[in-house]
Amino acid sequence: MSGLLRMFWMEPPVRAVILLTTLMVSALVGGTAFLLYDLRQRELEYARAEIESLSRVLAEQTSRTLDGVSLSLRGAQERLSDGIGQRLELDSFPVQALLRARAEGLPQYSSMFVLDANGEVMNSTLLGRRPGITVADQDFFSSLVDGNARKVFVSRLYRRRVDDQWTFYLSMRLVDGAGHFRGVTAVAVLADYFESFYRRLDLRFGKQVQLIDARGHLVASFPSRLDGIDQPVDGGPFLGDAGQQKAAEPRLMTETASGGERFVAYHPVPQYPFVIGVSIDQDAALVSWPMAARPILFGAGAVAALILAASSGMIWSMRRRATMARALQASDERLRQMVETVMDAIVTVDEDLVIVLFNKAAEQMFGVTAAEVAGKPFAPMLASSAQAAYHAMVGRRRRSGERERAKLGRAELTGRSADAREFPVDATFSETCSQGQRFFTVVLRDLTERKNIETHLRETNRQLQELSTSLQQVREEERASIAREMHDELGQLLTGIRLELSWLASKMPADRTDLQDKLKVVKGQLNQTISSVRRITYELRPLILDDLGLHAAISWLTDDFSKRTGVEVVSDVCESEPEHGSAEATTLFRVLQESLTNVTKYAKATTVWVDYRRTNRDWCLTVRDDGVGFALGDPKAKAGFGLVGMRERVRLLQGSFTIESAPGEGTVIDVAIPVSNS
Fold first, then answer.
1. Rounded to an integer, what distance in angstroms lies between the CA atom of residue 3 and that of residue 435?
2. Which pLDDT value is given to residue 241?
3. What is the mean pLDDT of the chain?
4. CA of 411: how far to CAs of 218, 343, 365, in Å?
5. Is the torsion defined by CA of 633, 637, 641, 645 positive or negative?
C-alpha cells in the first residue's frame, strides 16, 4: 500500500497539481501582501494630503479672521487720523462710540482700545474711558513708537490683566496733523477664540491643530493644551519672515514621537506671523486600514482555502480515479477471464454491427479465431434465414444514418460455422452504453444437443401416449370381458345354485329344523354373493353403457350413488350421446364415476350437481358439489392418481379438463371432448 502511495505522489499530474497550487497560493499571498502594503501607503498618503489640505484651509480661514480684525482696526485708525479725529480727545465719548461701532458684531476679538503717546489706556470697549492701565512696556505699543503708521503690528502672547486670559494684540500707530506720534489703537484677540473655532470643526481620526506664532510658541491648539500655550513647539518650523509673505507653500514633515511616527503639515498664515500646524499620528492615519484590510485578508484566505480545497479535491479525485482505474483494470481482467472461460459463446458488436468481442467459446462454436473476425459484421456468421431476425433484434441503420430502435430479448437463430455447417442457437441480446457509444452483446448457446433431446422426448412421449391409449383400451376391453364372463357365466351358475338350494329346502323333512335353518343361512350368503358379483360387474364395466348408452349409464350411476351414500344428486342430462361403447362415452362415464368416488371420500358434500350436454363442437360434462373443497396448490391433493387419471383420459381424446376448488367453496370439474372424435 505504501508503495502504491509513493507511486501515486510521484505521478506527473499529481506533482503538477501540487506545484501549481503552491505557485497560486504564493502568488495570492504575495499579491495580498503587496495590496495591503499599497493600501497602507495610500492611507498614509491620503492622511498626509488631508492634513496638508486642512492646514491650507485653516491658514486661509485664520488669515480671513485676522483680516476682519485688521480691517476694523484700520478703519478706527483712519477715523482717528483724519481732520475730525485728530481734534478729538482720545478719552472722549465720541472715540469710545467709534471703538464700539467698529467692534460691533466681530466675535474675533474681545476688545478694542486706544493708547496715548505714553502707553496709557485712554479708551476701551471693555473697560471704558481712562481705566488707569499702562501698557508702555508691551511690544504692541513700544514697537510702534517709531514705526510705520500703515503697518498692522501683531504682538506676542500676553496674559490679559483684567481676566488672565491668553491674548495677542493687533495694533496700528496714530499720528497728529504734523505727523508726530499721538498714540496707538489696538485690538485684543483671545487665543481661546481659535480653540473654540477648532473645537467646532469635525476633526476625526486623531487630527491635531496648532496655531504657532513667529517665535515658534503655541498660541492655540485642539485638543486644548493650556499648559503648552506660549511654550516652544517641539520640532516647529523656523518661520523667519514667512508670515509676511502673501503666499507660501505648506511644509510636510514626519516627526518621531514617543508613541511612534506622526505626520505634520505646517502652513503659514498669509499676511500674518502665524503658522497653522495640522498633525496626525500614524496609528490614527491607519485607523481605517484594518477595516479595509480585513475583508481583503478574509477574501484572500477564502480564496486560498478554496484553492487548497480544490487542489485537495482534485488530488483526491485523481487518487480515486487512479484507484478506480486500477480496480477497473483488475475488473476488466477478471471480466475478460470470465468471458473467455464461460461455456456460452459471447459476441459483442458496436453501433455499426461489427464484432469487437469474440470469446473462446464463440471461436469453438463458429470454428474461427477472434483475430479473424474482429472488425467484421456478425450477420454473415448466421444462416440467411436467421439474419432478418438478428437485424430485427439489434436494429438496422437507416439511410439517414439513424439507427432503428432495437428490440432486445431472446430469439432462436441458426448459426453457420466456418465449414458451412448450420446449427440452432439460443441467442440472448442485451445493450450497453459506454462513453456515449452503444454496444450489443449476444450470448449464444448451441441447441443441437437440446434439439436432439427434445426430438427424442417428443418421440418417446408420442410412444407413451400411444401405449397409454392402448393400455386404456386393453384395460377397458379386459374389464368388459371380465364383466361379461362374471355376468353370463358366474351369474348363471350362482343363480342355478340358488334354484337348487330352493329345491333342496322343499325336500327337507319338516322336523329337521336345524337343516332348514342352515339352508336359509347358505341361501342368504348366496344372495349376497350374487349382489356383490353384480356390483363388481357394473364397476368393472357397466353393461348398460354398451347396451343402452351413456344417458342410461349416467342415470343408473347417479341413482346408485345417491342410494349408497345418501347424497342428493341433481342431474341435467341431455338425450344426445356418443356411440354406445365408444371411447368418448367410456371417458365421460369414468370421469363421472371417479368424481363421485372423490365426493364420497373427501368432499363431505350434501348435494352434487351433474350437467351433461352437447354443444356444436364438444361433449360437455360438469360435476359440482357443495363440499369442503381443497386448495389447488395443496401437495396432498396431488398425491393421488384420481385427478391425474381423469386428466390423462381426457387428454388422450384431445379434450380439455379443468378443475376449480377452494377451501369451503366446493369443487367443480369441467370436461369437454370434441364431437369430431366420435
1. 32
2. 42
3. 79
4. 112, 19, 17
5. negative
- Assign residue 65 a region: left if phi > 0, alpha if psi is -120 to 50, beta otherwise? alpha
The residue behind cell 499648559 is: 227
| Rounded Cα–Cα distance for residues 408 and 477 (Å) | 56
pLDDT tens-digit map of 20-36: 888 888 998 998 898 88
Beta bridge partners of 345: 444
Instruction: Classify residue 602 by its DSSP letter.
Output: I
Where residue 610 falls among pLDDT bands split at 50, 70, 90? very high
Instruction: Tell me the Cα Rg of the chain.
Output: 69
pLDDT of residue 622: 93
Ranges of H-type helices in 489-612: 491-507, 513-540, 543-547, 550-565, 583-598
Share of the chain above pLDDT 90, in %: 4
Peptide bond just before 223 cis, omega within 30 deg? yes
Cβ atoms within 10 Å, residue 622: 17
Which residue, chain included where needed, has cell 465449414? 419
**How far does Cα 538 stand from its chain's mean position?**
82
Unique residue bearing C-alpha cell 491658514 = 59
pTM of the model: 0.47
Helix, strand, or coil (residue 331): helix
Q: Angle at the Cα of 434 (from 430 to 436), degrees rounded to 5?
A: 110
User: Which uninterrupted H or E stretch holds 399?
Assistant: none
The 3-state DSSP class for residue 440 equals strand
* Residue 168 φ then ψ, to 5°: -125, 160
Tell me how crowded residue 83 is: count the other CB atoms within 10 A of its CB: 7
Buried b (16+ CB within 10 A) or exposed e, 540-569: bbbbbbbeebbbbbbeebbeebbeeeebeb
The b-or-e profile of 455-490 (16+ CB within 10 A means b, else e) is eeeeeeeeeeeeeeeeebeeebeebbeebbebbeeb
Is pLDDT above 80 for 598? yes
Q: Given this model, what pLDDT does residue 608 score?
A: 92
Q: How far apart are CA 461 and CA 474, in angstroms?
A: 19
| Burial zone of 344 (CB within 10 Å; 0-12 exposed, 13-18 middle, 19+ buried) | middle
Cβ-contact 216, 233 below 8 angstroms: yes
Q: Which residues contact 447 (CB under 8 A, 6 or more apart)?
A: 412, 423, 424, 425, 426
Distance CA 335, CA 339 (A): 6
Burial of 198 (0-12, 13-18, 19+ CB in 10 A): buried
